[in-house]
Amino acid sequence: MPVAVSDFAHVRLTVTDIDRSREFCDAVFGFDVAFEAPPADADQETKDQLAFLFGGVIYSFGGGLLGLRPVASGGDRHNEDKVGLDHLSLAMPGRADLESAVTLLDGLGVTHGGIKDIGAGFILEFRDPDNVALELFASA
């Protein structure tokens, strides 16, 4: 009998520069921080309790949790043609929200592919600072 899964719990992306990735996520998504690595002067119990963050952050949003884990080497870049993550797609309420996202991305200087009609809905594709392919999706 297969495992009964009901939904995603979280996705965590490996990043090269946590400050740069947090700045990007904060500017583009504005997600609430659920957990973040403690400061260097935190007590050892707190550091041990949050060791699962590996110096990163976990954001909370309506779809679950999105984590950033800063353990990749500085020159590394994501490649969806290798084993692992192809892209991360996040749902939007409607096409008008994608249009607002285009305006935001343009204002931030984030390159994107424009809104595409894929029949079942609309997508807006762009990349994070580590070249991870991101997609915003709205149903038709």
What percent of the residues sit in helical stretches (DSSP H or I)? Answer: 10-25%
Q: Whole-number radius of gyration?
A: 17 Å
CATH topology of the largest domain: Signal recognition particle alu RNA binding heterodimer, srp9/1
Q: Tell me the strand percentage band.
A: 25-35%
Order of helices and strands: EHEHEEEHEEE
How far is the first residue's CA from the last residue's CA? 35 Å
Shape category: globular
Under the CATH scheme, the architecture of the largest domain is 2-Layer Sandwich
- Note the quaternary state here: single chain
Sheet with most strands: 4 strands, mixed
Sequence stretches where pLDDT stays below 50 over 5 or more residues: none
- The whole-number mean of residue pLDDT values reads 94
Structural class: alpha/beta
Summarize the structure.
This protein is an alpha/beta fold. Helix content is 22%, strand content 32%.
Labels describing this entry:
Signal recognition particle alu RNA binding heterodimer, srp9/1, globular, 3 helices, 140 residues, alpha/beta, 22% helix
Give a structural overview.
With 140 residues, the protein is an alpha/beta fold. It folds into 2 domains: 1-74, Signal recognition particle alu RNA binding heterodimer, srp9/1, CATH 3.30.720; 87-140, 2,3-Dihydroxybiphenyl 1,2-Dioxygenase, domain 1 (Roll), CATH 3.10.180. It contains 3 helices and 8 strands, in the order E-H-E-H-E-E-E-H-E-E-E. A hairpin with a 2-residue loop joins strand 3 and strand 4. The longest helix has 14 residues, at 95-108. It is globular and about 50 Å long. The model has no long low-confidence stretch (mean pLDDT 94).
